[in-house]
Every structure is written in C-alpha cells, then in structure tokens.
Amino acid sequence: MMHKWKERTGHKNYKMSEFSIKNMPDYEMVNKGTGACAGCPSPMGLRIVGKALGPDTVCVMTPSCTVASTGMMPKSCFDIPILNCAFASAAASASGISGAYDAMIEKGVLAGPKPTVITWIGDGGTYDIGLQGLSAAAERNEDFIYFCYNNEAYGNTGMQRSGATPLHAVTTTTPSGKTEKKKNVPLLMLEHDCAYVATASVAYPQDLYRKVSKARDIKGFRYIEIHSPCGPGWKIPWSETVDMGKRAVKSGSWALWETDNGKLIINPPTLQIAQGKVMPTSLEEYLKLQGRFDIVTKSPDSESIIADMKASIQKDLHRLLSFT
User: Fold this and answer.
1) Interstrand relation of 116-122 and 57-61 (parallel, antiparallel or unpaired)
2) Which of 48, 74, 164, 214 has the fewest CB atoms within 10 Å distance of its CB?
3) What are the DSSP calls for 28-49, one per residue?
4) Has residue 305 got a pLDDT over 90?
5) Would you tell me how many other CB atoms lie within 10 Å of the CB of residue 120?
C-alpha cells in the first residue's frame, strides 16, 4: 500500500512554529470505521502519533478501549502490526520485540532501518497493573516509545477508578468520590532518567506531533503520556473532547512538559500559568462541565473543596518549576 508519508527532514530543533496541522503527513494509522465511541480520544491521539511515526511502526497493546474498538478478527482498523498481550506485560513485550529486531538486524536476517516499536496503553495498564514492567523497561533503557493515553479510569470495563483518577472523581468503584490523590507517573519516569519523557494532550495536536517527532529520533526508552478526556467516563458530551482537554490544561489541572537532555522544560501555556504570567481559567467551570464531579460542585462545601483543589494544582506547578 502506498502512503502519502515522507521521511521528515530538518526539524532537529523541533520548534513549534515548524509544525502546523496543514503540513502534517496525509498518512493515517487509524482507518475509518473504528468501533470507538464518538469523540473517543484514543483514535484521535493515534492519528497524530501515526502522522509523526509513519507506517514503519509496530505497536503493543493490552486489554483496553482501543483493543475493543479494533474490529472483528481478522480485520483491523489499524494500518500497522498490533500485538495484543496480557494486561501487565506491555513493556516486557515491547522490550522483547525491540530486542528481536536489534538481533535480526545485527545478524543480517533483517535489513534496516529498525521499525519504531511503541506501546499504546491506558492509564490502568500503566499506573497500576503494568507499573512493574514499565519501571523495569525504563531502568534498562529499552529502545521503544511507551505511550500512555490517560483517560483517568478503567474505561473498557465500566469506568472503575485507577491510580490516575483525580481526587473526588466519581467512578463505579468510588461512588462517593475518590479519596486519594492521583499518582504522577510522568515524574516517576523522570526519576528513572529516561532518554525522553513528555506529557501531551489530544487537545494540542501540534504539541503532541512535535513531541512524538522528537521522541522518534531518540534511541532508548521514551515515555509520552497523553491526556485523553473520555465522554462516558467523564460524563461529558462526546463533542466536547477537545474543549475539555483545553480546559484541563488552561486551568492547570493537566501540565504540559518534556525533557531535553535530562532537563525538564515546561511547555506553553503551562509555563506561563506556573510562572504567574497568565491566570488559569476557571477550575469551577471545568469541574461543573463533568458529571463525575457533581459530588463536588453540588456539595454545600464546594467552595472549600475547590479551594483545596486549586491549592494542590499550584503546589504541583511550583514543583514542576523547581525541576527546571
């Protein structure tokens, strides 16, 4: 199959101004007719990832909404080879595939260049069930890109809470609101001294495309976490995926950053918010638009609860600044 995709030239500085949506390749990693919900952030994010990586890509997935929407065997909505492995073994499986390609190329069994090996794993398979394998692969500096698409719950099995679920969010296993603060796996990956770590959002496709392009040209373990608002899980209209993603970033609830030679760099607009140069948008409005936070917004103590949430956001942003 011929693709309208060309090897990128230049862009070694990866300036945002060099990446416009109209200049992205025509190549589509995700074919039309997926089984995903309308407005689902997973195929939306994979489309951008595919445009940055191209067709010479091999992907590992675990049980998730993405796998469930692949289509009936033997057909698939994806244009690349997909390995669907056990829930806890994504990083181990990707490590084995990457190592196998290295061995075949070294022995002359396979002519280079080496395909880009990636994972596409939800937050449940990253923050919880797959964390051990993820940490081990990061420590070994395995040569693949680990993508976590974070919709802040176990979406495929009924919206149970995960380690990425925010404080106070209602899920099927936290009907009175989650009582624990969410983990920060991207910062944990930073402490592993990975080759590249970044956070992104489906609502900022140019930023995501640039980061994936940058990661593609780096050897070693790379981790990119993509914030992915979920219609059914967040109880928002399916048409509001992008708008909700922008509200998350502009309210400070989701931070955009990356590493460059081990140094943390905060990306706009998060940087300006963290520095106090730009006021964050309304957290109250962000929460009110999500049914999963009704327990907060309709509480008689909503003002104090939201004030605590704002203080927590500021604390997290100041912590990011301390790493720069």
Assistant:
1) parallel
2) 74
3) -SB-S--SSPTT-HHHHHHHHH
4) yes
5) 25
CB of 164 within 8 A of CB of 183? yes
Please classify residue 12 by burial: count the beta carbons closer than 10 Å to its beta carbon, then call 0-12 exposed, 13-18 middle and 19+ buried: exposed
Phi-psi group of 14: left, alpha or beta (phi > 0 → left; psi -120 to 50 → alpha; rest → beta):
left
Q: What is the pLDDT of residue 2?
A: 36
Collect all residues with Cβ–Cβ distance below 8 Å to 114 and sequence separation of at least 6.
101, 102, 105
pTM over cut 0.70: yes
> Of 103, 126, 106, 78, whose CA–CA distance to 227 is shortest?
126
Mean pLDDT calculated for residue range 45-66: 96
Give whole-number Cα distances, 42 to 38, 97, 202, 230, 248, in Å.
Answer: 11, 23, 9, 9, 17
For residue 6, the model assigns a pLDDT of: 47
Give the domains, in start order, of the chain with CATH numbers.
Answer: 16-323 (3.40.50.970)
Q: Phi and psi of 197, rounded to 5°?
A: -135, 140
CA distances from 174 to 63, 107, 128, 237, 289 (A): 22, 53, 16, 22, 19
- ∠ CA(20), CA(48), CA(189), 5° rounding? 110
